[in-house]
Amino acid sequence: MFAIDSIDMTDARAPARFLASLRDTGFAVLRAHPIDAGLIARLHAGWARFFADPAKRGWIRAPGSQSGYFPFRSENAKGVAVKDLKEFFHVYPDTALPPEIADDTREIYRQLSDLGTTLLGWIQEELPAGIRDRLSEPLPAMVAGSDRSLFRVLNYPPVGEDAEPGAVRAAAHEDINLITLLVAGSEPGLEARDTAGRWHAVPCDAGMIAVNGGDMLALATAGYLPATPHRVVNPAQGDHTARQSMPIFIHPRPEVRLAADKTAADYLAERLREIGLAD
Ligand SMILES: O=C(O)CCC(=O)C(=O)O
Ligand SMILES: [Fe+2]
């Protein structure tokens, strides 16, 4: 059975339940987490104004940079020819930000990075010793002082009849990083794939945070923790609602060894080429 657990972070059994859900499904959903609800609401409103304003084009990323605004149809999933129906803004610690939303954005970056470190600590403690011993250093140490974690603010505009055939909000993909923390989308649509190929809605209601393991975690744990493919499906025909979501992709320091022959920096460079974001 594929059951993504919804976990109250204050429960004494939370770390064990978190690991079990990640191991069985690649996902877990967190309730009673420490991220401030008012902060999330202000970010949703502020970034909605950003995406609604044509001045957003002034924030388009510089060629070769992974920071800044990526217009509609910038990214494709690995091996997929059509571009996803999304636009997004990539935030690193040194990214220039629209002044109206800069402080709140930096604050959530900090809070989500700290939460990511806590969750990596849970994984570290709960892993079987045989897997833990394979790690080149403890998981929380891999991200200590890292400036590579990426906060992505996503806007999925209303899907019109003119959408390219086969194009979806986000085609099936795995995340590249260690773990992803996703502040619940403003609308449903996120789905995870089980090992039999069936799709399941991720039960992440407003105010919750979905967490999933990425390819770097799968590599470092020799597959003990899977990187589960996921996607964002289009709304029903005639439903013209936009959707917003805000994942942070927690990345190790570039020199961290994920496997004997692979650093985080080598691995990331390979993967960015596959999704059309390296130039
Ligand atoms: O928008 C979502 O809910 C998921 C986005 C996602 O999977 C990604 O950007 O990697
Ligand atoms: Fe993803």
Automatic annotation (TrEMBL):
Its cofactor is Fe(2+). It catalyses: 2-oxoglutarate + O2 + 2 H(+) = ethene + 3 CO2 + H2O; L-arginine + 2-oxoglutarate + O2 = guanidine + L-glutamate 5-semialdehyde + succinate + CO2. GO terms for molecular function: 2-oxoglutarate oxygenase/decarboxylase (ethylene-forming) activity; metal ion binding. Its EC number is 1.13.12.19, 1.14.20.7. The keyword Acetylation does not apply. Keywords: Ethylene biosynthesis, Iron, Metal-binding, Oxidoreductase, Plasmid. Residues 145-252 form the Fe2OG dioxygenase domain. It comes from the Bacteria. One of its GO terms (biological process) is ethylene biosynthetic process. It is an enzyme of class 1 (oxidoreductase). Pathway: Alkene biosynthesis; ethylene biosynthesis via 2-oxoglutarate. Belongs to the iron/ascorbate-dependent oxidoreductase family. PANTHER family: 2-OXOGLUTARATE (2OG) AND FE(II)-DEPENDENT OXYGENASE SUPERFAMILY PROTEIN-RELATED. This is 2-oxoglutarate-dependent ethylene/succinate-forming enzyme. It comes from Tistrella mobilis (strain KA081020-065).
